[in-house]
Amino acid sequence: MVTATALEAELLELAGSVPDPELPVLTLHELGVVRALRLHGSGAAEVDLTPTYTGCPAIEAMSLDIERVLREHGLREVSVRTVLSPAWSTDDITPEGRRKLREFGIAPPRTRATSGPIPLALGPTRTDATDTTGAIGTTGAAGTVETEPVRCPHCGSADTELLSRFSSTACKALRRCLSCREPFDHFKEL
Amino acid sequence: MTAAGPATVPVTAALALGDDALVLSHRLGEWAGHAPVLEEEVALANIALDLLGQARVLLSLAGDEDELAFLREERSFRNLQLVEQPNGDFAHTIARQLYFSTYQHLLHAELAAGDGPFAPLAAKAVKEVAYHRDHAEQWTLRLGDGTETSHERMRRACDALWRFTGELFQPVEGLDVDWADLESRWVESVTRVLGRATLTVPEGPRTGAWSAGAGRQGVHTESFGRMLAEMQHLHRSHPGASW
Fold first, then answer.
1. Domain spanning B11-237: which CATH class is it, in words?
2. How large is the average pLDDT for residues A63-73?
3. A27 contact partners, CB below 8 Å, separation of at least 6
4. Is the CB of residue B142 less than 8 Å away from at least one CB of chain A?
5. B134 compared with A167, residue with greater pLDDT
6. Burial class of B12 by CB neighbour count within 10 A (0 to 12, 13 to 18, 19+)
7. Is the pLDDT of residue A127 over 80?
8. pTM value?
9. Complete domains list, chain A, with CATH
């Protein structure tokens, strides 16, 4: 493990301060997608960026924004590298990021002690509020079951139901609050 | 997309997995503007986007992603015949999703657990595909155990695509996978879901005569040529065009 210099740490912080293009309330640091920054010689930096989803179309905008910010800071050459491993998880979203998501009207993902498949609750019709929605997996696979409910970001009620596993972006599910009746996005666990 | 990958990648395997994802992504994208409800429109587009992302990484391991996607002839594609099958009605799309996402989920879980060149991508994809599989299973249950009409249409769809499922377990050069074990777990899972959906496992053959499946060798079904023509015509008409 190469220890980052103070300057690298400072530049990493700067790269991480770039707002997410889809969810501008969050910074890339709070989303947990900026992994590392290395300086090569004077004025050249390489940044490791990881996508939330493999097909996330925002990754190119993120790269350009990081390059711009670092160039404005005086760096001559900036290259952003996409790294896949270790795979990003919603557990990489910082506590501050979760708070901001909730304020923005998006239910934050629940944290998991261990990631991995979760036994599937199969139902033939509309998924009810007490199931493990957003929690999925394969039969017989060991995993943790979500016990914590998805709370409505508007009124805080735990009485919410799943409308669709996929919402405005791949990383969100569409839910509805049964108390205040408002629909809302849920940043689903990955 | 620049993805950091190991120096040696089995090209055959990268093309097989990448083409599966690319072709199914395109098929699912055809639902845009046609899905039965808005939520499904969004769901199918999101699943297509996940697959497209996986395809981009995989094809980039094998060469130039745009050249591979837009400038290859039909016989050079290595995707399964299952994924190129037309969308049909919604039940056909769901049956195709059930068969393929169960396969892809089991396969990527295997690859993610190893230390081969596909492990980093597989570790990401397995989490995405878990949602695709869940989506397909939930719809299979709802349609199978739904009305008389939905049950009948789901049954017809599962039957129609059954003969394409033997090909899923043909060994792919460069992938260190126990294919027989993968197949038995796939059969077990699909049998369980169909059972809960009050459907019966189709009786037709999955391999041998009267079955289909030579996509991995570049032999494709009739509709694939038309799909490719639509997918490639813009790039071929305007080489090098960009947004």
1. mainly alpha
2. 96
3. A16, A17, A18, A19, A20, A97
4. yes
5. B134
6. middle
7. no
8. 0.88
9. 6-82 (3.30.300.130), 104-190 (no CATH)
